[in-house]
Amino acid sequence: MLRRLLPTLLALGCGLLALTWGLVSLQRIFTQEREDARAQLRSRRDALEEYATQALRHTLGKQLEGNLAALHAAMGDPLAPGDGFLLNFRGHQFLPRLTRSSRGSRATARRHYQELVKAFAEGAPAEPWRERLVRLRAVEAALAKGPSSRANALAEELLRHHAENPLPPVQELPFVLLLLERLQRGEATPPLVRALLREGLPEDFGGIERSAGLQRDLLRERWRFTQPDFDFLLAHVVRVSTALGEPSDDFQARAREAGAGMLVIPESLSGPTLIGERWYVEQQGEVVRGIAVDLEALLRDLARDMRGRGHFGPDGLVRLRASEAIQSLESLRLEVSVPQWTAAENAIEQRYGLKTLLVATCGALAVAIVVMAVVAQHGRYRYVELKSDFVATVSHELRTPLASIRLLAETMERKLSKVPGMRDYPERIIQAADGLHFLVENILSFNRIDKGRWQLKPARVKLDELIGMLRSDLVGNTSVPVRLTADVGDVELEVDPSLVRLLLINLARNACAYNRNNPVELSIRAYPHPGHGCVVLFGDNGIGIPEAEWENVFRDFYRLGSQGPEVHGSGLGLALCRKIMALHGGRISIDNSSPQGTTFSLLFPEPRHEHPEQPS
Prior knowledge:
six-stranded antiparallel sheet; single chain; alpha+beta
């Protein structure tokens, strides 16, 4: 068999190798096409991302440069807007301002103010303001007589004493507040007294170092006061500012600033840096300057500008590729997201997938064709061999009974009248003819069932009647005595009687052919199988079937070798039995087998129709 298939296998193998080489080469071309297309898209994206990154760096630098003047102003003046600015010098944060009050609910400044008010009204001394209160009463008494040079001189002496003898802010600010409240006279307020509110005292008073005005001093020293104290002083300062006609909107705005708390600045910055996507900072020596930025708004503006320049469509977006707490602008990279590019990438992958699928399909088809060709060749040669074996077997089987019939007929013609022993020749001729008829019947029935040409004619029949037919078929058709026992009760089957009769006689003849015992013993038992109809067990006392051959014996034209004398047959008996059972919706199998005999199990399905009992 292999020798016959070798040329075909070599030809198919060479063809398959050539096709494989072609498909692999084609797949490499498809892969290179995909990589080239993706490289083009990647190159364009990289160029736009580099452009966007450089544009963002330039925009951030310009914003910081444009805000330097306001940043320096906020540094020197607590009343100047400082929100959104950062200034750090030698590790000390000046901006954003720390606008938190001290913890707790005590009101020390308010208590000092109330003590001052009471002491001033009663003319009593109060430490440490005793000298100041004396001078304040003198200035107020002079002002009560009307503006005069004496009143101004007394006010100047009071303020010089105040500047030369500073007190802690928690004591100093309540006194300055009381001073302003007692000496304010609207437009007639002395200029030096009015200066205490916003500008502070002139330089020759030592005010540059000591005070920058009550409003500024309160904001600068806010951290020393609890929130109740701060709110108390704030309300009084606003009231005095209104009475003097001095502006207080900026003062109140700075008082409401929430601030940003203490910002953690790295010890050394490698260059312009983004901190938390909220601050843009630059370091020059020991000074770190920065501004608050709205990065999302900047990216939206950048995307709008790029759309206006025609770099991408209306759906394009620009965003940070990686979000980090501290990110140097040198390492910052923006990501440009364009839906059209995503669609193009998907189209590239889809085309590559289709091409790959095409290559794989071609490969699978090629393998399938090779396998089918090998199987077809193998089946063809197998069919030829089986056909040859079948023809030889059938020819041999037909030749033997025909030769016997011819020989016996000739001998009977010559010697029948002379030898009394010739009387059994007619019986032997009949047996040989019956054997030939049985063989032909098996072949014809097998062919009709195999081709689907048998029209099943089911009928309700008692199993005992079929066994009776089997007894009749065995009489005179076997060369050895047969003892058949049956225990089937009143079991009825809905089957084609002629086919089941053929099945039983095949099993019986096989039992007689593969048997060394005399007589041949056959047993048939039947019992109902719940949910599956009826089980019929057909047993014999033959030589048995090896377990490895239990399925093979039901194959077409398969013959089991015998250890005794040669057994003639076509190899269709058990195959025909299986086809008959399958035609009835049942099955046949070997229940057990040993050198003492074999038992076949026939499972018949339940009857499909109930037939009414015939009247007696």
